């Protein structure tokens, strides 16, 4: 292979990697429900740079990628991974699974869904201690959340409308308004949460 051909191959590879990086950063940021400003504050990377990375308009340095991976709580290998080479079976380790903690520190949402679907379908492993409350702002219009209880008991409050559920039961509710999940009783809660982010189901 000539030097010119080799340079062209490297350039093409860099473009492909940069494009995948932008998509991965955007999916992880949305999985955490972070704005560009919030990710910039947590990572120390300028908002304008993050925006350019997501739009595939710049090739970030390794230091920038490392800061973003730290802020998004994933390994740098995961951020740099290319979807073109993904195997049919994909394994995510516990270390690589993003986790969201409630304000009271008693609720834990592990992002177990596929990051490629985060813009329209999200699912989580939900665990909470007694007394825990997970309060959430309204998602996009028409969004629906499904909470299937595996252990413990919860009460879901959607704009003042409340309903309880125990193991074996599922609550489905519009989450395009403020909503909260509260642990009821003295037992810890374990549940699966799935959120449909598009309005098609409501039409």
From TrEMBL:
Key words, A-Z: DNA-binding
Domain of life from the UniProt record: Bacteria
Q: Where is the HTH cro/C1-type domain?
A: 25-79
The reply on keyword DNA-binding is yes
**PANTHER family tied to this protein:** DNA-BINDING PHAGE PROTEIN (PTHR46797:SF24), HTH-TYPE TRANSCRIPTIONAL REGULATOR (PTHR46797)
Name listed for the protein in its UniProt record: Helix-turn-helix domain-containing protein
């Amino acid at each position: 292979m000539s030097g010119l051909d080799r340079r062209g191959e490297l350039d093409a590879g860099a473009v492909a990697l940069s494009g995948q990086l932008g998509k991965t950063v955007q999916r992880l940021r949305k999985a955490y429900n972070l704005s560009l400003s919030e990710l910039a504050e947590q990572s120390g990377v300028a908002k304008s740079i993050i925006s350019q990375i997501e739009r595939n308009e710049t090739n970030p340095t390794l230091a920038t990628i490392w800061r973003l991976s730290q802020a998004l709580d994933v390994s740098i290998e995961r951020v740099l991974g290319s979807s073109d080479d993904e195997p049919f079976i994909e394994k995510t380790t516990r270390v690589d699974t993003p986790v969201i903690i409630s304000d009271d520190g008693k609720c834990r949402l592990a992002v177990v869904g596929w990051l490629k679907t985060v813009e329209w379908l999200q699912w989580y492993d939900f665990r909470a201690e007694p007394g825990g409350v997970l309060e959430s702002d309204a998602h996009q219009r028409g969004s629906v959340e499904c909470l299937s209880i595996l252990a413990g008991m919860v009460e879901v409050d959607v704009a003042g409308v409340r309903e309880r559920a125990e193991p074996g039961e599922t609550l489905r509710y519009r989450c395009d308004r403020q909503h909260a999940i509260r642990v009821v009783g003295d037992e810890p809660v374990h549940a699966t949460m799935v959120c449909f982010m598009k309005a098609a189901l409501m039409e």
